[in-house]
From TrEMBL:
The lineage of its organism: Bacteria, Bacillati, Bacillota, Clostridia, Eubacteriales. It comes from Acetobacterium tundrae. The keyword Magnesium does not apply. This is Electron transfer flavoprotein subunit alpha. Pfam families: ETF, ETF_alpha. Belongs to the ETF alpha-subunit/FixB family. It comes from the Bacteria.
Length: 335
């Protein structure tokens, strides 16, 4: 079939049950604005053994076209099989741009593709827009330890590829009546040629249960919490609000709480309805990953703490005094 060679592609990562990871659906959002800016369509790429669920989501979240590659060799992610199939698709259709989630999987797949295609990759983007003057995507990502944001263009090679962290963008509105054009491609990779074998899976109990990226309410603790015991107070407030506990890097590096809780440039990017920062100063590497939260509440003893510059509500005070009062008000249903 004829396909416009200037399409923008979004990779829809799936889990082992074949469901779409949120990040792929989120990327359909900038995918739409960027492809429209270039007069293109947004194409979702789904690779897996059973793809129905992910294809239904990609359709409902507004893909114009969905290209599907199915086979038992794609039952779980392997660099060999996925890079082979994705590369074969790119070679056939020559898309202009590709957006991939900056998950463990995406961080493995995207550089393989960029290398095989001899094109550029901007990893871990936190912002995307269209550079009208040059007609390229402008990829923004933290540089020099997060002290400045670099705006990167890929003018000489195609496709231009970027990975974007989960929760940077909101998913588009869902419309189950929306229909996409479905294209199926038969691309197979021999299972014997997959060089990595899964021998055993050891799950990090915390990583399994902590869903910071999907949390509606996050209560985070930093150095001001003072130690592992201080996190009990943070947990109590999170429990009272039905929220999830987050942490600054200092708290994680000090061993007070596991890294699954870390919010920030080297942790997770979050955009909950409510983010409560307790004893966190507001370093740029922390702010970069939580400043898109709908409402930010900061509790800090230092009135000059930078976190107050972005907070919607600031409480200058000792978190060990403020939080119990907070919880009492919640218990009395005053808050
Ligand atoms: P501090 O900056 O020490 O702030 C503690 C705050 O607690 C102070 O404002 C103080 O006034 C307040 N306080 C003290 N006692 C109390 C009390 N009893 N009640 C209320 N307030 C109190 N940081 C991250 O968070 N996430 C990251 O992913 C991350 N990645 C990084 C990557 C790089 C490359 C680099 C260089 C740094 C990174 N950092 C990250 C570290 C970051 O620069 C800061 O050092 C860190 O965020 C500070 O953590 P904090 O706010 O908990 O501690």
């Amino acid at each position: 079939m004829e396909m416009n060679s200037s399409n923008l592609w979004v990779f829809i990562e799936t889990n082992e049950k074949g469901q779409a990871h949120n990040v792929g659906l989120e990327l359909l959002n900038p995918g739409h604005s960027l492809s429209r800016a270039q007069g293109d369509e947004v194409v979702a790429i789904v690779i897996g053994q059973h793809t129905e669920a992910a294809v239904a989501s990609a359709e409902a979240y507004g893909s114009d076209r969905i290209i599907i590659v199915e086979g038992e060799e794609y039952a779980r992610y392997s660099t060999d099989a996925f890079a082979y199939a994705f590369h074969a698709l790119i070679t056939k259709y020559a898309p202009t741009s590709i957006l991939i989630g900056a998950t463990d999987l995406g961080r493995d797949l995207a550089p393989r593709l960029a290398c095989r295609l001899k094109t550029g990759l901007t990893a871990d983007c936190t912002e995307l827009d269209f550079d009208e003057e040059s007609g390229n995507i402008a990829w923004t990502r933290p540089a020099f330890g997060g002290n400045l944001m670099a705006r990167i263009l890929c003018p000489n090679h195609r496709p231009q590829i970027g990975t974007v962290r989960p929760a940077v963008f909101k998913k588009p509105e869902q419309d189950t009546s929306h229909k996409a054009e479905i294209v199926r491609e038969e691309i197979h990779f021999s299972i014997e040629n997959i060089r990595t074998k899964l021998i055993e899976e050891i799950l990090d109990a915390d990583n399994e249960t902590i869903d910071l990226e999907g949390a509606e309410i996050i209560v985070s603790g930093g150095r001001g919490v003072g130690g592992p015991d201080g996190f009990k107070v943070i947990q109590q407030l999170a429990d009272a609000l039905g929220g999830t506990v987050g942490a600054s890097r200092v708290a994680v590096d000090s061993g007070w709480i596991s890294s699954a809780h870390q919010v920030g440039q080297t942790g997770k990017t979050v955009r909950p309805r409510i983010y409560i920062a307790c004893g966190i100063s507001g370093a740029i590497q922390h702010l970069a990953a939580m400043s898109s939260s709908d409402t930010i509440i900061a509790i800090n003893t230092d009135p000059e703490a930078p976190i107050f510059k972005i907070a919607d509500y600031g409480i200058v005070g000792d978190l060990f005094k403020v939080i119990p009062e907070f919880i009492a008000l919640i218990d009395e249903q005053i808050l």
